[in-house]
Amino acid sequence: MFTGKLLAIGITPTGSQPMEARQQVAAITGQGLEGDRYATGQGTFQKGPAQPLEQVTLIEQEALQAAARDYSITITHLDTRRNLLTENVPLNHLVGKAFCIGEVILCGIELCEPCGHLENLTYPQIKQSLLHRGGLRAEVVQGGQLQVGDVIRPPAAEQA
Questions:
Q1: DSSP single-letter state for residue 134
Q2: Staple 114 to which of 94, 119, 134, 146, CB 3.0 to 4.6 Å?
Q3: Which structural domain, as residue segments, surrounds residue 107?
Q4: Rounded alpha-carbon distances, angstroms, from residue 92 to 45, 63, 132
Q5: Distance between CA atoms of 136 and 138, rounded to whole angstroms?
Q6: Integer Cα distance of 33 and 66 in angstroms
Q7: d(CA 50, CA 160)
Q8: Which residue positions in the chain have pLDDT lower than 70?
């Protein structure tokens, strides 16, 4: 069991544009985050409406700290192009599992390994520094408002 925190939110309206920080955003069931590239059908690799693995991406603050320690590079949350920055959440262990961020329920779909496109948009070594700690792709199972500071936890049924 874990209890974590949502530290930051980032979205972008189109695939290759810079990510923009938000204090809150609506998570839309089956679509993603309001105003984000995949919810609007403007993702770089998107073909049609948002698929479950395209809806939301998350990365751990601890992964960014490890990249800084191991590769001597400073990576911000927005550099990673992931939507949500978490703290104290074991994202690699949430593949196939539901979890709550405030009132929103997400389900982990697959690990979000860094790609060459990310490196082309940012800088060298980001791909290598985030290998196996690039975060999680998730589906919005139950929408609602996400806000920086929200608690992240397993669903109530798993806490009993």
A1: S
A2: 134
A3: 4-154
A4: 23, 11, 8
A5: 6
A6: 27
A7: 33
A8: 44-50, 115-123, 157-160
